[in-house]
Amino acid sequence: MEQVMKDLKSQASRSTTPGKGGLTPEIQSRIGHQLRAMYDDVVRQGVPDRFAELIKKLDAPGATPHVENEGGSNDNNNGRD
């Protein structure tokens, strides 16, 4: 997939009108097809098991979300503003 993107970039640099900065309809179409193929591949992969389990836990009656503070958050400022 990475090679396809490199090919599209090199083709786009050769096929565009100098000074206009736009892509030809052919290049736009090829990019669109590649994006659709990548999207379809991601959709076919499905939801990872760990995410499915987390969603089940959050959907359970009485579930309370628990967010761990890793020190980078400003959620607890000890009363300081």
TrEMBL record:
Low complexity: bias regions: 70-81
Classification via Pfam families: NepR
InterPro entries: NepR (IPR041649)
Positions of the UniProt region annotated as Disordered: 1-29, 58-81
All copies of domain Anti-sigma factor NepR, residue ranges: 28-60
Name this protein carries in UniProt: Anti-sigma factor NepR domain-containing protein
Natural source organism: Bradyrhizobium forestalis
Lineage, broadest ranks: Bacteria, Pseudomonadati, Pseudomonadota, Alphaproteobacteria, Hyphomicrobiales
